[in-house]
Design goal:
Shape: globular
Structural class: alpha/beta
Largest sheet: 8 strands, mixed
CATH superfamily: Collagenase (Catalytic Domain)
Number of domains: 1
CATH topology: Collagenase (Catalytic Domain)
Helix content: 10-25%
Number of strands: 15
CATH class: Alpha Beta
Length: 326
């Protein structure tokens, strides 16, 4: 009887110890494949920064970095989200799924130290037609970009017809390489406006963040309440070959975007210039970063100016490298 009681006590002790050990979580860097596969919760981008070869599928899981998130796409597809703001605070995020490896990459961002500093920086930056800087994301359209416009959450003050007209013009600005530098028209494949749609952009927002949703091939430009100082956000998907598969654009529906620069303008940003920038992401262009504030693909838009509607030399060079010229 004494031996039996001692045996029970030993078993209880070992069981408690095992439970206690199991309750202590190992650091992210030491977690096993099974740990990362368990559950359905979001995954920090830092966990996937070096690429993780997993024995399970992460398709449909959300990967986040600060205020930005994307949903892991199907094998062979990469997703990225990037945007345009008044000060360029939000960092972009990219997640590639090769089928055997999932890797997350956070984009660099520049952070101007306020409006006065931004104005000083712009004064010393190269003129648009003398700045050759560009950055490519590594994908391009091989066929026509067909897109629709969802006006469901568009501000009434902008006017539906004006929104459609300027959105189509913005697409043409980037696609054809519209510029004032004397450069010829680009050879980008023709795009097609498919009319107004009830489909929403594949982009979710909250008070603090923005998320690129699950992969689909419906390309939509629409409106929503973007967080912080964001004016526009683009989510785009491409295949391992670099062939673009889809792109969605979400524009802020607050009171900062205007279709015409008002007299005595302060703290207003050009709608068509903003959409031109976002179509740049959709066509394969990345941000230029600090020191290039006169280019359309600068990370932060200049207020009270329609300059973004016209590509700078660097913007044109980047598009030319992808699509050639006529």
């Amino acid at each position: 009887m004494t031996i039996f009681r001692r045996t029970l006590a030993l078993i209880a002790c070992l069981t408690a110890g095992a439970l206690l050990a199991g309750s202590v979580q190992s650091p992210i860097s030491a977690r096993t494949v099974d740990d990362r596969c368990a559950g359905h919760g979001p995954i920090a981008a830092s966990v996937l920064a070096d690429g993780v070869s997993l024995g399970c599928s992460l398709v449909g899981r959300t990967v986040y970095d600060g205020h930005v998130a994307v949903v892991v796409p199907p094998p062979g597809v990469t997703v990225a989200g990037d945007g345009y703001g008044t000060h360029g605070e939000v960092v972009g995020l990219q997640v590639a799924n090769t089928g055997t490896l999932v890797r997350a990459t956070s984009g660099a961002t520049a952070r101007p130290a306020g409006a006065a500093a931004a104005r000083t920086a712009r004064a010393g930056d190269p003129a648009a037609c003398k700045d050759r800087t560009f950055h490519l994301e590594g994908h391009a359209w091989k066929t026509s970009l067909t897109y629709g416009i969802n006006l469901g959450k568009a501000p009434a003050r902008l006017g539906a017809k004006t929104v459609v007209r300027q959105t189509k013009a913005a697409n043409a600005n980037m696609r054809t390489g519209h510029n004032s530098c004397g450069r010829p028209r680009l050879g980008t494949p023709a795009s097609h406006y498919d009319g107004r749609t009830h489909a929403a952009p594949n982009i979710k927002t909250s008070a603090t963040g923005v998320t690129c949703g699950a992969f689909n091939t419906t390309n939509v430009v629409g409106f929503g309440n973007l967080p912080g100082d964001l004016l526009g956000w683009t989510c785009f998907w491409w295949e391992g070959t670099g062939r673009m598969a889809a792109a969605d654009i979400l524009l802020d529906n607050g009171n900062r975007l205007v279709t015409r620069i008002p007299a005595g303008c302060t703290n207003k940003w050009d709608f068509e210039g903003t959409v031109t920038h976002e179509f740049g992401h959709a066509y394969g262009m990345g941000h230029t970063g600090n020191g290039h504030s006169n280019l359309t693909m600068d990370h932060a838009e200049r207020p009270c100016s329609p300059y973004g509607r016209t590509l700078g030399f660097g913007d044109w060079l980047g598009m030319k490298k992808m699509y050639g010229k006529r």
